[in-house]
Amino acid sequence: YNRGRANNRSTWVFGMLGIKVERRRPIFKVVHRRSARQLMPLIKKHIRQGSSVISDGWRSYRNLQNEGYDHRIVNHKENFVDPVTGAHTQNLERLWGVCKSTIWRLRGNRTQNMLKDHLDVIEWTYWHGNNHRNGPLGMLLHDIKKKYTRPT
């Protein structure tokens, strides 16, 4: 509903979150418009046909069912969990909170290019880094984070 958000935005972050058992795999894309023309190619590229897609009622998603997806809509004006299907967007909403707080902590980097870089790092960490928390990759990420995290 764009509540509390700037309405003169030149770019938006479009997020998709794949969930399979205990795995979470986000995909973030910076887009200039939230139109079906811009979003549908991203959805088709990253989400397999036949998959369940849960979204809010944004009009750009209206044709998902016609494109071969099991589209479930959650109307946030009425509820946050659909009482009939149990569909909800809470996993993605939680991820947005983590992303926003992570990016906000990295002060002084609010440019478009830095936003893309930070989203890429968050995406990569969910796809690869979290799988190696106690292995060499996890230790490397820990050391990098420790060295380059600014004190609060």
UniProtKB/TrEMBL annotation:
Q: Which InterPro entries match?
A: IS1016-like_transposase (IPR053164), Tnp_ISXO2-like (IPR024445)
One Pfam family assigned to this protein is: DDE_Tnp_IS1595
The residue ranges of the ISXO2-like transposase domain are: 1-127
The record's annotation in PANTHER family points to: DDE_TNP_IS1595 DOMAIN-CONTAINING PROTEIN, SI:DKEY-17M8.2
What name does the UniProt record give this protein? ISXO2-like transposase domain-containing protein
